[in-house]
Amino acid sequence: MRRIYLDNAASTKVAKEVIEEMLPYFSEKFGNASGLHSYGVEARESVEKARELILKKLNGKDYKLIFTSGGTESNNFAIKGIAFANKNKGKHIITTKIEHDCILNTCKWLEREGFEITYLNVDKDGFINLEELENEIREDTILVSIIHGNNEIGTIQPIREIGKICRERKVYFHTDACQSFTKVPIDLEKDCIDLITLNSHKIFGPKGVGALVIRNGVKITPLLHGGGHEFGYRSGTENVPGIVGFAKAVEIMNEEKVEYMRKLRDMLIEGILKIENTRLNGPKENRLCNNTNFSFKYIEGESLVLYLDEKGIAASTGSACASHKLEPSHVLLAIGLKPDEAHGSLRLTTGIYNTVDEIKYAIEVVKEGVEKLRKISPLVR
Amino acid sequence: MYSSKVMEHFRHPRNIGEIKNADGIGEAGNVICGDILKIYIKVGKAEGKEIIEDIKFQTMGCAAAIASSSMITELAKGKTLEEAMKIKKDDIAEALEGLPPIKMHCSNLAAEALHNAIEYYYKKKKSPKM
Asked: Is A321 designated active site?
């Protein structure tokens, strides 16, 4: 059966160039980067080269890049690390209602540890209100953490404006850029970012590797103590093949690829919005180049995703029925969708390996699926 | 995640639609979870007993909800009303070769909708103006 992968916000296929770059690090160049011998030295050189390459992409001259196991670890490290190291200054943190679960659940855990968290509202397209942010910053606020590109509805926050506000008010600013890195230009200096979370497997790199980039001078406590790897910020033997692959993935991403994903995204939006009683969730402008998210009235998302899977199309949904909690997506609820609208949601995210032909086929299959499910729905009049 | 039986009923649901002038209509649903089930029955007689002569369903919900609705129409068709009232969520889940634990409530909803349809019929019989 023909298989079409349209869940690139969840994970991506590893690029061939990336795999080729990684392979020697499993067999010939397998050394521990801390070793004094030639094996260690060649591993260390590769890790440092990777670090430099990624920092350069971000214009991070006065920053340290700490390799981690991925987005979840980096976000935990940023939030808990800042909280623990700065609790003498204050115990207030500001974030938003549309963060990834690894930020929200870390914040909820900190609440139980005596921290106070403010969850900023978002408008109907998922943007925060800068004035609300300014008003919520207090004497005891130690951190503002705001997702750059939203994983569900694609909203790209104005991080430079946010960064400037935080810098002016002398509060650390962290952004989770798992979805946006390499797709949206980021300039750590100009955007006034203190900490940024990156990961590899959303950009055609391997799973199990990511990074937290920290501005020099930021007070942060490590999560993992041990042999003092990564400047003492993250102990544990470096995942050399992963790090090398991550850097290669960053290196080969370019504006042409971003434009291509955007073109496919716009085709999807145009084609699918032709279905009656359908809405696009998330903004029209300032949207991630690969993200689409729709709500179809009268039907439920999990059944649509399964219908698509039967036809070979991989997609995802914010429907409660597909979640372990049986609650609809917190992001869709935060932008004001009613539970029944959130139930009928479908996320399709494009990647560099999709073709125009695949997108055309996907639009047709989505139409069929929606029609079929509406036929058996008691809500259609 | 789902058994092949669930997927088969999801792919080819039986007895879809509504019955015009149904003798009983039953609904069950939960806004939080997003499943809404509606069951229509036509009551007939066989060997002096009232039976479910025809049954149809409409469902908005996940694959488990659709398959549970489809399965209960198969289980109930031709049964006496008394027998049909005894169909429980476990019977549906078993007939579907199992449901994931988190989806068991879907089979419960199907049983509830059927029982509501039968009760609706009984009430209507008592006060025909309804």
From this structure: yes
Looking at the structure of chain B, the number of domains it has is: 1
C-alpha A218 chain-centroid distance: 23
Whether A139 contacts A316, CB under 8 Å: no
State the complex-level ipTM. Answer: 0.92
Do the strands A195-199 and A172-176 form a parallel or antiparallel pair, or are they unpaired? parallel
Pairs of CB atoms within 8 A across A/B: 69
Q: What is the DSSP letter of A15?
A: P
What is the C-alpha to C-alpha distance for residues A245 and A26, in angstroms, rounded to an integer?
12
What separation, in Å, do the N-terminal and C-terminal C-alpha atoms of chain B show?
Answer: 43
Q: Which residues of A touch B7 (CB under 8 A)?
A: 306, 310
- Write down all domains in chain A, each with its CATH number in brackets: 16-252 (3.40.640.10), 254-375 (3.90.1150.10)
The model's pLDDT over B63-101, given as tens digits with 9 standing for 90+, comes to 999 999 999 999 999 999 999 999 999 999 999 999 999
Using the beta-carbon criterion (under 8 Å), do A319 and B65 form an inter-chain contact?
no
Token pair of A379 as six digits:
């809500």
Q: What percent of chain A has pLDDT over 90?
A: 94
Mean pLDDT score of chain B: 94
pTM: 0.94
